[in-house]
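haha ok so turns out i had the wrong file open the whole time. this is the CORRECT one, sorry everyone. sequence first:
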Amino acid sequence: MRIDIICKPDCGDRCHRTLANVRQALDQMRFDAEVHLYQDSRKMIDNRVYVTPALVLDDVVRIAGRVPEVVEIKSLIAERARYIRRLRDAV
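then structure:
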């Protein structure tokens, strides 16, 4: 799984709080994922993100414009894992 956090170059503390919450959620779930922090306006344009910070799970923008809570991030990760498992079982 790949998790991207997209912020404006001058975003400040909100970007780092989002990163800390993502890392905390992954540690609590004992889940391994690639986590990338982008502070780039070009990345915002490519993903059609207009408000930051934005949380992107596997190239899908899930949350934008606010710092997500740890519980919310855990539910998004768990939902994504169930989807992948169901897809694998169907094939």
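Helices lie at 13-29, 41-46, 70-90.
again sry for the mixup
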